[in-house]
Amino acid sequence: xxxxxxxxxxxxxxxxxxxxxxxxxxxxxxxxxxxxxxxxxxxxxxxxxxxxxxxxxxxxxxxxxxxxxxxxxxxxxxxxxxxxxxxxxxxxxxxxxxxxxxxxxxxxxxxxxxxxxxxxxxxxxxxxxxxxxxxxxxxxxxxxxxxxxxxxxxxxxxxxxxxxxxxxxxxxxxxxxxxxxxxxxxxxxxxxxxxxxxxxxxxxxxxxxxxxxxxxxxxxxxxxxxxxxxxxxxxxxxxxxxxxxxxxxxxxxxxxxxxxxxxxxxxxxxxxxxxxxxxxxxxxxxxxxxxxxxxxxxxxxxxxxxxxxxxxxxxxxxxxxxxxxxxxxxxxxxxxxxxxxxxxxxxxxxxxxxxxxxxxxxxxxxxxxxxxxxxxxxxxxxxxxxxxxxxxxxxxxxxxxxxxxxxxxxxxxxxxxxxxxxxxxxxxxxxxxxxxxxxxxxxxxxxxxxxxxxxxxxxxxxxxxxxxxxxxxxxxxxxxxxxxxxxxxx
Length: 490
What we know:
Layout: H1 3-21, H2 26-76, H3 81-92, H4 131-143, E1 148-153, E2 162-163, H5 168-176, E3 182-189, E4 195-202, H6 211-248, H7 264-309, H8 315-342, E5 349-351, H9 353-366, E6 371-374, E7 381-383, H10 385-403, E8 406-412, E9 415-421, H11 456-466, E10 470-475, E11 481-488
Parallel strand pairs: 2-4, 6-8
Antiparallel strand pairs: 1-3, 3-4, 5-7, 8-9, 9-11, 10-11
């Protein structure tokens, strides 16, 4: 595996945990963040609802138990000691009937609230930890100062007591959590002596949530996720189209305009991109037409000069001038080819890269050049056959011309990589990028005496970039130059 491929594999391996934990696309992140926010909001709602329901049930239960105990106590209070004991025994008997008791006396009216007394609606709700104190305080207030009240945990379950029925809104919780039920004995001492003991059964931890609440929240979450999906897709689809259009710029002769749709900001971005693309292509078309026209018009005077040079009697002078004219004609020919390549309308099609490289090796081998081929492409590559052949021809030609031969190495691991190696003098590191500039030629080994116009590598890189790939040059550690053509498989 090549170093670049290994680096990409390493990056992919390092990014794998992140991909599992968090989406990498904008659409995925928007949707995931929205869903997480909704889930957190739903969880907070459930907690708040559970707390409010817990306080409501506790308050309601305390009020209900206070009312029942106060009514029964006030009914028992006027009876004599014997009658009261018989009534308490009858009330304590399992399944016993309620004895006839006189109605309790009317409670004294509450004193009017002063201007500084807080409204009852704003009084602090009792907490679970305050259950005993709250029940005791409310019973004391309901019965009056003459009665004694104590609330304690049940220590002797067989003790005869007056059981109090469970309020209806706690019956389901008690049936569902019998093992967590807590029992309290409320002891009321009458003013003239004697006591009555009441037993309360309750479930700590609040009331269960309604069964249909989770179903309703699930349906609401599903509706929100669907809505968020539609909104996120509506935002990211134009951005994806913009990315594809930007990626295709420079690869196609004249890519289609980007549709202006979506939110206002997205429409403005698409409109600005289309305007930029129109300006860029108008500039390139104008420059290419001018330079192509100049290069074409140069062919006529060059032809006349060649005819005039052939009539010169001095053979040495004639040879030098013919050489200069030949070089000028080569530059004009390469320039025309470069401008034609920028407006290439050849359609993309599957290319048998193995057959293409084998034909190039055979073609250069027929002219006596040493060209070897190792490695294979695993599948056809979709691209422009003529342009790709020209790119590879320029690279192999340079290797043969300046390095005495070419070694073609093919790698196909996620992307197609063709390496063209030679054993020549190489290129100074500072010049490795400058040689891709049009008409730029080195002054040492790759000079005018060696031939060439300085456009071969420019054309090769343009073709590589038009296919979405890259073309780079590196000096080999053992000597020589390596041209690496990387073409992505899409």
